[in-house]
Amino acid sequence: MKAKETLIPQQQEPATASQQPRPAAASVLGISKSFGKASVLENISFDVAEGEVLVLLGASGSGKTTILRIIAGLEMPYTGKVILHGKDVTELPARERGVGVIFQSYALFPKMTVEKNIGYGLRIRKRKRKEIKATVNELLSLVQLEEHRRKYPSQLSGGQQQRVAIARTLAYKPEVLLFDEPFGALDTQTRVHLRREIRALLKKVNVPAIFITHDQEEALELGDRVAVLNVGNIEQIGTPFEIYNHPATEYVATFLGAANILDAVIRKDFIEVGSAKIAATLDKESFRDGDCVKIVFRPEDVSLNRGDFLRPGHHRLSSARIEEISFVGAYERVRLLVESSSDECKTDETPYYLTTETPDRKPTKSIIATRPKPEASTTRLQVGERVVVALTSFTVLPQKKH
Ligand SMILES: Nc1ncnc2c1ncn2[C@@H]1O[C@H](COP(=O)(O)OP(=O)(O)OP(=O)(O)O)[C@@H](O)[C@H]1O
Ligand SMILES: [Mg+2]
Questions:
Q1: Does residue 189 have its Cβ closer than 6 Å to ligand 1?
Q2: Does the pLDDT at position 16 exceed 90?
Q3: For the domain 20-251, what is the CATH code?
Q4: Prediction pTM value
Q5: 40 Cβ inside 6 Å of ligand 1
Q6: What Rg, from alpha-carbon coordinates, does the chain have?
Q7: By alpha-carbon position, which residue is closest to atom 5 of ligand 1?
Q8: CA atoms of 190 and 14, how far apart (whole Å)
């Protein structure tokens, strides 16, 4: 099923190398898993290309770690296959798969120096001393820890320890690198710094990587693509741009940040949202005239205007009354009550999602807009004032098939 198609989105996804199709380096095909009677994964499939970072994003208990454990060979799937570089490894024991796993507690050997830790995997594989030395040197330089080579883990910062763990895993040239919330124990600033470092490092080594997180921002910044998991199902896989701007489901839309959701009706060449008619060309197979749908838009897709004059590309939604204005540092957040109007598709409880970005109230027709600083300081708005609300972009969610 095609997710969505609107005329409105004018943002073009920035061209990246990840958009070109690349052969799969690691794949899972139709994986299902149950523990006792509880089904934990249902028919999960995805590919990771050489050098690509795929992020698995999902709430606690959605099955992220179970997927990694199946790829690593620490858990058997009930159905489905794991393929690494063209080889079916589903039946292979963990140690024969060549999978590098980095967990939150990366368990460096406390009595070994940095260089001994990194060379450990090669020593137990009985590699020649000269080869071990060369590899360790190369990896120390890659993770920029040359000057710390003789230190013990307890003498390193959390971030440095993390880099040792990665170098130790890279030493035996894994087919795929798996990261299970490796930054879980670190403070926000270090996390942000490390995810940029790790991204750069992964691009250099060109090994496919699967990275688990439940942090939306981390997923968007780190992943070439992101798979959003919801109780054992993949809701959507796409580039960070696609999943953020064109969510395929309500779950994806709301999981990735503040989302406004309104009821709408499909008409021939437009969609009807309350009394507004917004031009849109929709895929005829997914949407029919008269269908009741929901539209999703981000707070930054809303533009607020004093008059009826709208800039090109801005589509009038309705007039609205400002209920609340809050200063949130980088931008101003405005809560508005949009005009309610009779609507054949109106559902009583149009959901209003509370995320860390939305205020803690539950009016049914409130929407949130954000305004960047320059705009907020040039045009000052007041609580109680009426404004015209326009949308610069939105997505029509496909209807759930019953
Ligand atoms: N060995 C097991 N036996 C029984 N149930 C299990 C087992 N391992 C995982 N589960 C269940 O499977 C579900 C998914 O667990 P999983 O660890 O994959 O979640 P997760 O997405 O990694 O969560 P978190 O973000 O909290 O780490 C959970 O409901 C969990 O209780
Ligand atoms: Mg987990």
A1: no
A2: no
A3: 3.40.50.300
A4: 0.84
A5: yes
A6: 25
A7: 35
A8: 27
